[in-house]
From TrEMBL:
<protein>
    <recommendedName>
        <fullName>Nucleoside phosphorylase domain-containing protein</fullName>
    </recommendedName>
</protein>
<dbReference type="InterPro" id="IPR035994">
    <property type="entry name" value="Nucleoside_phosphorylase_sf"/>
</dbReference>
<dbReference type="InterPro" id="IPR000845">
    <property type="entry name" value="Nucleoside_phosphorylase_d"/>
</dbReference>
<feature type="domain" description="Nucleoside phosphorylase">
    <location>
        <begin position="261"/>
        <end position="341"/>
    </location>
</feature>
<keyword id="KW-0732">Signal</keyword>
<feature type="domain" description="Nucleoside phosphorylase">
    <location>
        <begin position="48"/>
        <end position="161"/>
    </location>
</feature>
<dbReference type="Pfam" id="PF01048">
    <property type="entry name" value="PNP_UDP_1"/>
</dbReference>
<feature type="signal peptide">
    <location>
        <begin position="1"/>
        <end position="24"/>
    </location>
</feature>
Length: 369
């Protein structure tokens, strides 16, 4: 009887929600009924936010038996995004798909952090590989992320010793290093009209800073405890075959120094080489640095897990490998994510156990355990 009553209540809630949406009952920008549902979801928080670029990268997670949707509020649709509420490895999560590239990743991460009570963000997906020591299928966990899409494109004829436009205002800098196109000329060493690009740090406005007083950020570190914990993932066994074709060696999980993102699909051997030799970059993608920038400004811990699907232009001269290996990479990234979340539980338990052994002074903290 109780079960029937609950089902009726859930049904009524849904009907009310649909009615409210149709009639357009709104209180400011956020529909009042949506707000109420979000508040109730937040009462059960905080959650781990799982941010994924595209549906083929998300579906191995949603299809995994480790993901259990919340039976009352399986999802909330808001601002063109679907926030899926549930549990992974018995830990409360909200999973959201961003769509391709930096603006989508930034908007979605910001919405997730502003609407919901989130204690940390885990970002997963596939990536290009700039590191000759790694292979397709490997899963990378970079320690630093940078957005490489903010450029000051220098006028023709100017070089490393010439000030950039608006540099003296403090808007732009020559500290980070530059890409000189003619360094990559073949045969002729004539300069070319593209000249130089100087990468620029992002302006950031952290929640604990002063509004409108900018700070700058280029290499954004992931969360230290998450990165340390990720060491325990190294040695995991991962899939290495697509149908009956297997990679030369079994893929591995590896923490690397650096990853970069921009609104650019890199399929270019020379640029790949430049990124690796100038910045020690391994992982190249189109979203992680946007997630990193939002998390930096919101002071939210984050980690990125990116599986290598291709060589970013450094491999076969015929075609990019992602067409073949993207599904394998996507499923490897999810495997590593699930393992990480299970370790996260364990780690918290271990910390709690340690605290329990300590003085009762820590009683307050222990409540959280
Ligand atoms: C330079 O050009 C020649 C002739 O087109 C080509 O064979 C060679 O592979 C090129 N070298 C590089 C590094 O691209
Ligand atoms: C480059 O990064 C790798 C890991 O990605 C690290 O082992 C190596 O020490 C780094 N090299 C330098 C020169 O920092
Ligand atoms: C693997 O097999 C599936 C199903 O037969 C097929 O759709 C897919 O194209 C194959 N992938 C490759 C890389 O051959």
């Amino acid at each position: 009887m109780h079960k029937v009553f609950r089902s009726v209540m859930v049904l009524l809630e849904w009907l009310l929600f649909i009615a409210a949406s149709v009639i357009g009952i709104a209180n400011g920008a956020v529909n009042q009924y949506a707000w109420e549902r979000i508040s109730r979801i937040n009462q059960e928080g905080p959650y781990l936010g799982i941010v994924v670029p595209n549906s083929f990268e998300m579906s191995p997670l949603l299809q995994s038996s480790s993901f259990v949707p919340n039976n009352k509020f399986p999802y909330i649709d808001f601002a063109g995004r679907r926030f899926r509420i549930g549990r992974v490895e018995d830990k409360r999560v909200i999973v959201v798909m961003t769509g391709l590239s930096m603006v989508n990743a930034g908007i979605t991460t910001e919405l997730l952090l502003n609407l919901f009570k989130i204690k940390g963000i885990l970002h997963i997906g596939i990536a290009g590989n700039a590191n000759p020591e790694l292979q397709i299928g490997d899963v990378t966990i970079p320690q630093y992320w940078a957005h490489l899409g903010l450029w000051n494109w220098q006028r023709f004829g100017d070089g490393p010793n010439d000030e950039l436009a608006l540099e003296s205002n403090g808007d732009y800098t020559r500290k980070i290093g530059y890409l000189k196109f003619s360094d990559y000329n073949n045969n002729t060493r004539d300069d070319n009209l593209l000249n130089n690009v100087w990468f620029q740090p992002e302006e950031v406005f952290p929640i604990d800073g002063y509004p409108e007083i900018r700070q700058h950020a280029f290499w954004i570190p992931v969360n230290d405890p998450y990165f340390s914990l990720a060491m325990k993932l190294e040695g995991m066994e991962l899939g290495g075959c697509v149908n009956s074709t297997c990679l030369p060696r079994t893929p591995k999980v590896i923490r690397v120094e650096r990853g970069v993102s921009a609104n650019v699909f890199v399929d270019n051997a020379a640029y790949r080489k430049f990124l690796h030799s100038n910045f020690n970059v391994t992982t190249i993608d189109m979203e992680s640095a946007a997630v990193a920038l939002v998390c930096l400004q919101q002071r939210t811990p984050f980690l990125t897990i990116r599986a290598l699907s291709d060589l970013a232009g450094g491999g076969s001269s015929i075609s990019n490998e992602a067409a073949t290996f993207a599904p394998l990479a996507a499923s490897n990234a999810v495997e590593v994510l699930l393992k990480f979340i299970s370790l996260l539980n364990l780690e918290i338990q271990q910390i709690c156990e340690k605290l329990l052994n300590l003085h009762s002074f820590f009683n307050l903290i222990i409540i959280f355990c």
